[in-house]
Amino acid sequence: MTAIERLIRDEIARDGFMTLQRYVALVTGHPVHGYYASAEPFGRAGDFVTAPEISQVFGELIGLALGQAWADQGSPARALLAELGPGRGTLMRDALRALRIVPGAPAALAVHLVEASARLRAIQAETLADAAPVWHTAIGDVPDAPLFLIANEFLDALPAHVLVRRGADWHERTVTVDGTGAFVPGETPCPSGMAARLPASWGAATDGAIGEWAPLRAEAVATIAGRIVRHGGCALLIDYGAAASGPAGDTLQAVRAHRPWPILAEPGTADLTSQVDFAPLLDAARAAGAAAWGPLPQGTFLLALGAEARFDALAHSKDADAVVALVRARRRLLHPAAMGEAFKVMAITPRTAPPPPGFAHPPA
After folding, report:
1. CA 320 to centroid of chain Cα atoms
2. 3-class DSSP state for residue 208?
3. CATH number corresponding to 36-159+215-305+339-349
4. Mean pLDDT score of the chain, rounded to an integer?
5. Quick one: which H or E segment has residue 242?
6. In this predicted structure, what is the pLDDT of residue 197?
């Protein structure tokens, strides 16, 4: 029995059940035994591949977009280039390379990374050795300064409460142990206290409806937005999901070795994520006093930043195999049937700032 499984069993034995939100939080985020602290999630040898691992174009365009936002806001001499959940440092490495062409940006933007995993910090230190990054455990620990921030596939890993409508009440999905000792799903016997915090749009849900409510995501966005309101900056939040107008079902999934995996099987050995509902995140940013932009489909956003031209430039003078690889990467990042539509991009800026690159205007 693994250490993380023992922690789960002990808590269920004590309390009778564990909420599914708590299960995901423990399995993915435990600082020593959790998935991100002990597994190798990224790349072909890991469990999944993120956009920065597909092509350098992704990180380069993100870097240039934040560099333009920095210039549009007066090129502050002391600012932060931050990333939440930087993985192996690939995105930040590519962004920094692109930022070299933005006059003054490399000297002005200090690199700050929000990463709790000691194992991943060591990898990031090697990837970004020339950038002298500073690490933080939480967003709130990042110093006060103009903040130009990237969060790619960060929010989807923050656990959501999964709620089920039973009559007039909402009950929360749980994890229990059956007679054979296996982890099995359940529901809280009493209505969930989360119900009072749900959006008004959930009130029309019918019996049996399922929805996910992720206050940790909204709290993270509110923190980022508050920093940007006070000090300036721009945040780009990129994840898979959409802006829902009500409970959108149970989207929690587990992926192991690039294949679906049972959510409750062998906890700590698979990636657990759920789709991001951008609607409450937009509300959280605006409530903090910021302008919230999007969400735009990833393909639309990258095309607006010049993705096609950058892919064409990389393909110039390459051999046939390299060109084929670039074509595949371009399709995967941009095409609606791949990541181009499934992934969305949201931006946060001060209300007085120009539109961030890739966005024409904020929604009403």
Report:
1. 34
2. coil
3. 3.40.50.150
4. 92
5. strand 233-242
6. 85
Higher pLDDT, 43 or 266: 266
Half-sphere exposure of residue 49: CA atoms within 13 angstroms, side-chain side: 14
| pLDDT in the model for residue 363 | 59
Percent of the chain with pLDDT over 90: 75
| CA 277 to chain CA mean position, Å | 11
Cα 212 from Cα 250, distance rounded (Å): 7
- Cα–Cα distance between 63 and 319 in angstroms, integer? 27
Q: Say whether the peptide bond before residue 295 is cis (omega within 30 degrees of 0).
A: yes
Helix (H) or strand (E) holding 321: helix 320-334
Q: What is the pLDDT of residue 201?
A: 84
Reported as half-sphere exposure (CB side, CA atoms, 13 A), residue 345 has a value of 30
Q: Crossing angle of helices 56-72/90-99, nearest 10°?
A: 50
Which amino acid is located at 272 in the chain?
Answer: L
pLDDT by residue (tens digit) across 186-216?
Answer: 999 888 888 788 888 888 889 999 999 999 9
309 by Cβ neighbours in 10 Å (0-12 / 13-18 / 19+) ranks as exposed
